[in-house]
Specification:
Number of helices: 9
Structural class: mainly alpha
Helix content: 55-70%
Radius of gyration: 17 Å
Distance between the termini: 51 Å
Bound molecules: zinc ion
Number of strands: 0
Number of domains: 1
Order of helices and strands: HHHHHHHHH
Length: about 180
């Protein structure tokens, strides 16, 4: 299967996302800036900052992303949205090399298994547009079709993402009802 059209769609769905600057890559809870006691980010977060600072989100090698894939959890909400397409594209382009990238993606989108995971999803998933959710689902479906994900995993992830998308459309419905009322 040719993955080029999917990769194009990933980048196009996320093309409205901007990198807010190297100070906004992580919001480390140990950093005094974010209410912690350290004068800067913790060691893990620093590793993430060192890797992503000054980087665009295009053509990051699966081989490199593999080593920093835990960073998906550490990235601050807007930084997550900016680099998510890099992780998705690496997994789709090179699933074998990006095995740990795929695992990290699964962990982020599966039903939360701890309060930290639940908190993470609550602060990131609502930022995704329906179009972005759709492209994330297509990536997982593609990886499943290629034999890289089992049925229970893909099913539970798609449920999380569909629930998230459903919230958007009910919000839109409420918004529309309000507008209709105002104009009538
Ligand atoms: Zn940290």
């Amino acid at each position: 299967m040719n993955c080029a059209p999917l990769i194009r769609d990933i980048y196009s769905a996320f093309s409205n996302r901007r990198h807010l600057g190297d100070d906004e890559i992580v919001h480390c809870e140990y950093d005094a800036r974010w209410g912690g006691k350290l004068p800067g980010p913790c060691r893990e977060c620093r590793e993430v900052v060192d890797y992503f600072k000054g980087k665009s989100n295009r053509r990051l090698a699966a081989r490199k992303l593999r080593g920093i894939s835990f960073g998906l959890f550490k990235l601050a909400p807007q930084a997550f949205l900016f680099w998510l397409p890099s992780f998705l594209a690496a997994a789709v382009r090179d699933p074998r090399e990006a095995d740990m990238v795929l695992e990290s993606l699964e962990f982020r989108f599966r039903p939360p298994q701890s309060s930290a995971e639940a908190r993470w999803q609550k602060t990131r998933l609502p930022l995704l547009s329906v179009r972005q959710i759709d492209v994330v689902i297509r990536c997982f479906r593609y990886l499943h079709a290629q034999g890289h994900m089992d049925v229970p995993t893909i099913s539970s992830i798609i449920e999380v993402l569909n629930n998230e998308a459903a919230k958007r459309s009910s919000n839109k419905r409420i918004e529309r009802t309000r507008k209709t009322r105002r104009s009538s």
